[in-house]
Each structure stands twice: as structure tokens, then as C-alpha cells.
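REQUEST FORM: STRUCTURE PREDICTION
Request ID: SP-0412
Submitted by: Lab K.M.
Chain count: 1
Length (residues): 316
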Amino acid sequence: MKLEFSIIIPVYNRPQEIDELLESLTKQTYTKNFEVIVIEDGSEIKATDIVRSYTNKLNLKYHYKKNSGAGASRNAGMRMAEGNYFIIFDSDCVIPENYLIAVENALTHNYTDAYGGADAAADKFTILQKAINYSMTSFLTTGGIRGSKKSVEKFQPRSFNFGMSKKAFDVTGGFSFMKVGEDIDLTFRLWQNGFQTQFIEEAFVYHKRRSTFMQFFKQTFAFGSTRPFLNKKYPKTAKITYWFPTVFTISFFISVILLFVGFPYFLFLFEIYFVLIFIDALFKSKKISVAIMSILTTFTQFLGYGLGFIKGLVKS
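STATUS: Completed
RESULT:
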């Protein structure tokens, strides 16, 4: 199969982000033609002028539509695309210069109709951005599902760094209208239709995540609240590990209560865990500030996902 890439980028009120992303695409070492489609999802702060400044540097299309969410915007871009393999990025990503070569090499060696790539932090990221990246990618927090090699057959790509063939899009219809978890839902439907996915470790992106602690909490809460719905919709995909953040959250609150009645020993287990987080984050980042912040972001992630999961269980 001769690969012809179409890059789809939905954007909503973030023109400066799309500027960084498009600039990174002009630096690709990939020498073959590829198109870039920017879908403006009903933004009030449009990226028109910024996109226009790249028309002489990239094979670029720009489409403005009514606001309908990221999933529908990605679908709109894929319907417009002329290539036979679609690559989807979130607007807050910066793409390393060898990304497209890495994807082509991986798909040529082991073709699958969908893939996902890793999530990395650039040196220029803020302390909070690096800490959030650690919490989202570390083996000690998420099992490394966004940052390390996983099995080809059962890797669940995430929409910030996602690839899918035109054939797979035509069969599945692309993303659903779910606001959260639409990428996981799509992965399950790909599997149901006989398509395989893979993780391409070399195809990583720098995911900026312009989040405050509250925004990160809300994001993880939304992820957690969606998981019980997905477990119910696709029961064969449910795993015991999805319960870990909820068990963590409940156990932590119980440990705090026991502390006040003179039984501090359970809380010591959490202290040991967070010491391990500190050591691991320090080893990876080489910065004490990032290691300390990683303790806070990891706690925020577990608390948000755990409480969201409980809410999802009640609603389902």
C-alpha cells in the first residue's frame, strides 16, 4: 500500500497553539507530499490569519464549521481528506521533525489500519506541564500506556496522536459524538470490525497541555466518569485496573480518617508510594521541582479519575 498522509487538526479558540503545530510540520524531514487540514470548530477567536501564513509552506486546507465538538470536527476533516491514511493531532501538540518518517517506517514494516503514538514533554515546557506529562505516562501511575511500548493488538490509541486508514474510517464512521472517551470508543469499534491497532513508540508528540490543577482535575474526572459507560457498552474490554484510582481514592480518605483516631499505619503506604513517585520523576526529569510537582499532579489525577469513576458507576 502506498501511503498518502492527510493530517487532521481540529482547533477551538487556540490560534497560537495551531501556529506552533503548523510551524513544527514545516520542519518535517519527510520528503513526500502530505496534506494538512485545519478544522475550525466554531471558534470565536479564529486562526484564519495564522493558517493563511502557512499556505506557501504546507499543502494546507482550512475549513470553518459550527461548533460540534472535537470528534465531529475530526470526522469532517477526514471526509475532506484526499489521502488514504489520516493522522490526527490535538492543537496543543508540537510534532518532532522525524514523526512522519517514523510512521511510514512502522506501517511499512507492520501495517495496521490504526495506530497511536507516545506523549512526551519538551525541555521548554513549564514545571506543571512536565509534571502532568509524567503523571499521564509513567508506569507507576498509568502503567505507561501513553509512553512505552505496548502490544500491537490491544493498544488503545488516544486522539491527540492518532492515525487511521481511510478504509477503517469508511467502515466505522469515525469518532462518535461522545465528548469524552470518543477515541477509546472508536478503538473498540475498530477491533469489532476486524481492524488492528499498534503503538508506534518513535511517533511521539510534545503534548503541551495548557492546564491548571483544576483543569487537570476536571479532565481526569471526565475520563473516569466515562469509563463505566465504556465498560458497560463493551463488557469484554473491562479490566480490573480501571478500578485502581477509585480504590486509591477511597483508601486514602479512609487512611486519613484512621489517622485522626490514632491509627496512622495505612497512611504510611501512601507516603511510600509518593516517595517512589518523587524518586522516579526526579530520575526522569533531573529536576527536584518537577519531582515535587509530580506528586501533586499524580494525586490530582487519581483523585479526579477515582471520583469520576464513582460518579459513572452511579449513573450507569
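NOTES: The chain has a mean pLDDT of 92.
Reviewed by: T.R.
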